[in-house]
Task: structure prediction
Amino acid sequence: MNAAGRAALIEAVKAEALACFGDARGSHDWDHTERVLRLCLRIGRREKADLFVLRLAALLHDIGRAEEDRSHGRRCHAEAGAEKARVLLAGRGLPADLIERVVHCIAAHRYRKAVKPETLEARVLFDADKLDSIGAVGIGRAFLFAGEVGARLHDRDIDVEKTKPYTKDDTAYREFLVKLRHIKDRMTTAEGRRIARERHTYMVDFFARLNRETAGVL
Amino acid sequence: MNAAGRAALIEAVKAEALACFGDARGSHDWDHTERVLRLCLRIGRREKADLFVLRLAALLHDIGRAEEDRSHGRRCHAEAGAEKARVLLAGRGLPADLIERVVHCIAAHRYRKAVKPETLEARVLFDADKLDSIGAVGIGRAFLFAGEVGARLHDRDIDVEKTKPYTKDDTAYREFLVKLRHIKDRMTTAEGRRIARERHTYMVDFFARLNRETAGVL
Result:
């Protein structure tokens, strides 16, 4: 396939992927996919990954979200998305080996994953997806998600063992303590680690500041 | 009334105020009241305000929220809260002039207000309430509120004229552009202005950073 053919295919796949999101808004909407795509290209260029595989994988990585939401979390969106992507790409007449390279990225992108990222492209997508959970964008998403589930703004003394996620006593701070502050240690590429360290430092400072402001001392 | 009598009264009023919130969570819950109280005391000490009046006013300033929410915004929470506070404090046998000093603070604390804050204590409460909308806590609240109404995470090119608040295309960034970035110019006390400038700078940097991160360049 030449460059023009690849560009046309990307656009067609993008339209199909977008349609899977309906008018969903929030922490895992189409905007998230576009941010992950931009990070994939940035990291992928540095790591010399196959950008065609990466573009397809990034666009399709969350198309199984609706299935996960409908099943109340029982169906894994990475698994559902990988299966949907395989069908979608086969319908476009792509070679089987290319399809499997894209599908592996999608199947392996989840944080709590059964499938580990085994290729360079899968590692880049994994890192890009996680990076969107930290830094300023990660802060925004954590509070947006808390608002979606009717949670509290903040509780500096939150008991992370006793507080259940998705409840009204949950907070963005619990998500930070339990998950987000560890993301920098989960990166799988050198460029991912570099970006993660910078975003991590900003996020740590934000929550330290939030603790001081809410105590009335800043 | 002696110091012990005042302390007991504060505790009793606090319990009555808390009861007005039920199990509400989110951007205007009881936690907000407690943060505003802490800021009132900090600013009030510096400005040499009457801390007894301030404590009562801070605890009671949002007790009209449920009325505003039930009326879908037609009933103003500052007005409803002032009336409820008058009845509540009269029930505790407080002198009429003290009651009116507290009630004025509550009636005049709103940003888009008909009643202007005319006393030192009313100005302190006004500033403290607005300060809770900026800085790290303001960032968190803006995204939490966006999540509560099912809005988007971010749109750096948002058209603030065309985008309606409380809709799915709304964002914390619109709230920042239209309202939050102007709060530092609305402060009515010297200490309020000082705190606002510091929190304002942090918030401006946050959104500049968010624009760069979401563009994939940071």
In short: Chain B is about 60% helix and 0% strand.
